[in-house]
Every structure is written in C-alpha cells, then in structure tokens.
Protein: MoxR family ATPase
Amino acid sequence: MTDPESLAANIAGEMSTVLVGMDELIEQLTIALLTRGHVLLEGVPGVAKTTLAHTFAQTSGLTYNRVQMTPDILPSDITGNSVYRVQTGEFNVRKGPVFANVVVADEINRATPKTQSALLEAMAEGQVSLDGETFELPDPFIVIATQNPIEMEGTFDLLEAQRDRFQQKLTVDLPDADIERDLLDRFNGSPTMGPEDISPVVPDGAIHAAREAVKDVHVEDVVLEYILDLVAASRDHPDLDHGASPRGSLALLQTSKARAAVHGRDYVTSDDVKQLAEPVLNHRFVLTVDAELSDTPPSEILSDILGSVNPPEGKMSSQAPDAAKTPDQ
Structure:
C-alpha cells in the first residue's frame, strides 16, 4: 500500500471506527500529510477537533504530542531548552513537544504572539535551534492547530502572516441529527472508545512513497492558468485589501495534485482546484474595513471569485492522461 488512493482509503476506513461524519476532514488531513502542509482546525468546543488529530496520528502510525496553549506558555515550553545537570556540571538539551510527527496546538489563539511565532517558525523551517545548536524535526511533521471561534476573551488573533503559514483552514461543524444519532448509538455500547483503540494501518515508507506519487501527478497548463486566475481575482476583489499570496498559489497547486492522487487519478482537473479553494484560500484573505463592518464572510467572497473565473473544462489537451474521464473516476 504505497499509492495515495490506497493509503487514504485505509486511513479513512480505520478512523471511521471512532469518528462519525468526518470523511471530508479526514481526506483533507491526508492531503496535508502528503504535501507537507499544516492545518488550522476551527470549531466550537466538543466537536472532536483534538480527537480527530489524535486519531489521525494513531491511524498513520505517527508519534503525537498535544500542547495546551495558554497565555503563560513560553516558546521554550514548545521547542525545548537547556537544563543544567548538577551531577555532570553541564547543560543538556531537553527537546520540547514539537519534536513529534503530529503536534496539536490546542487553542493556538490563547498563546501570546511570541509563543505563536516560535511554533510557526518550526512549521516553516522544519527545524529548531536550541542553545546555538540546530535540530531537525521529525519527518513527517505536521502541526494541527485548533481554535474556538466563540470564546474570544483573552485570545490573540493569528496575524495575517501567521495564518498564511497554514496550508489549510478547516471548519469542524456541528453534526446533523442523523450523524449525531449514529454517534450516540456507537458510544452507547463503547463509552470509552477513543484513539487508543485505533490500529496503525500505514506501513513504514508508505507515506514517503505516496508523496513521491503525488509529485508525479500531471497538471495541464490550462489548470495552472486557472489557479493563477483565481489568485489574481482575489487580489483584485473590491472587498479584499489583500488576496492570496504566492504561497497560497503553491498550496492550491500541491493540494490539488494530492486530491487527484487520493481519488485515483494521475492528472489534476479544475474540480480538484475548486474543491480545495475554500480550505486553502479563505484564511489568507484580508477583508476591507467596509467588508468587515458588513460582516461579509470570506466564503461569500470566494464564491464570487469562483463564479467570475471560467474553469478550463473542454480545453484539456491530449497530454492529460485519460482526460476524457469524469473528475473523480
């Protein structure tokens, strides 16, 4: 099992024994893992944000650490520090919780900007400097940060440059009635079931092999132009002071390739780009003052942008393998 489609299917199948109604979120996390991205999860308390991240790590066979972000937490509490050993008379480096494959920063907006920056530096560089020495972080390495959108007292909003470091922002919604009933039925018989009951289903080397397969996914020039046109439209939109950055363009390209791969295709379609546009671009938008005062949601602006840019359907050349197939065939 080294192809992205099988890897994603096995992860989703095993995680579904604990999680209900989160198939799309699981796929998005898999896409982030395959493209070395980081994810910001937003949702009200009690919707299983942390459980989602922990279960994903357990299923993937990855090491996992959780950091509860609070206003008094220091950068060294995340990255580590030097500890003086009386017995030896020397300083020894104590690595922090960031040294894990999957790091969950719970309620990241409760930490001070200085602490947020320390974590985001690790995300960007893939390494940490402690006492003048540089330490490589594990590979794979993915940060899944959570935040609560309804309790803002005592929080520090992520700055635009910090939000831009996250490949995707995913919203964990309240479940509908049918899904919540299924949840109650499942946990009625197994009330203590959790991530620890999950078995790893990803063998050694499979993630690396799947990442290599994603690199080989074909992208037509017209699809590249479509991505560029969407990003350019965000920069020119009257409700936005700042649209998506070049980092956003690259993220949309890489995630679209990964989505194609986990759906069993070796080429990208405009549908892949459309499906990834919201989680990849929305959090990068900086609204104008008028748009903020009008409570204009970024999703509405993105819908306007998607409606204003024509997708390249019907323009695919014969270079795209099996171009005549339907998007997720």
